[in-house]
Design brief:
Elements: H1 5-30, H2 34-44, H3 65-70, H4 72-80, H5 98-110
The structure holds heme C (HEC).
Heme C (HEC) binds near residues 48, 58, 75, 90 and 91.
């Protein structure tokens, strides 16, 4: 029987493609976004949404993990969903980078909890 190198190399390429896809899926499922979300919030939101320091009586305090997780859907809406009179764009007067928005959306889609 003649050994076909082309078939073999095609199979090898396919094999490595499948392996690499699988690896990506596993890492994104296991990735914990919350620490990044917290960092984004402390940099971009706490100037207005903190009870300490410059707390200006805003409706939403985002100081603790619990407070952040409780309003995960509003946070995601305020940075990623279309702006409307009922959904103001946050941070007010600014705009997060696309990368930061993506992190918040991934966190929300994963569950929006402090462990996600
Ligand atoms: C410059 C001040 C300021 C910054 C910075 C800011 N916000 Fe706000 N935020 C406000 C104000 C004021 C409101 C009330 C909006 C209104 O009804 O006009 C608000 C409202 C909200 C609401 C809706 C609250 C509700 O009860 O409906 C959410 C959620 C929110 N902000 C999240 C964020 C997030 C997340 C960030 C950071 C990415 C952020 N904000 C940054 C001032 C700010």
């Amino acid at each position: 029987m003649k050994f076909d190198k082309r078939v073999l190399s095609m199979l090898l390429i396919l094999f490595f493609l499948i392996i690499s896809c699988k690896k990506d899926d596993i890492t994104s499922q296991n990735e914990v976004y919350f620490p990044k979300v917290k960092a984004i919030i402390s940099q971009n939101c706490l100037s207005c949404h903190s009870k300490t320091g410059t707390w200006q009586g805003r409706p939403t305090a985002l100081d603790t993990d619990t407070e952040i997780a409780q309003v995960s859907s509003s946070i995601k809406a305020s940075v990623a969903d279309p702006v409307s009179p009922r959904n103001k764009r946050m941070p007010q007067g600014g705009q997060l980078s696309q990368n930061d928005v993506d992190i918040i959306v991934k966190w929300f889609n994963k569950g929006g909890k402090a462990s996600d």
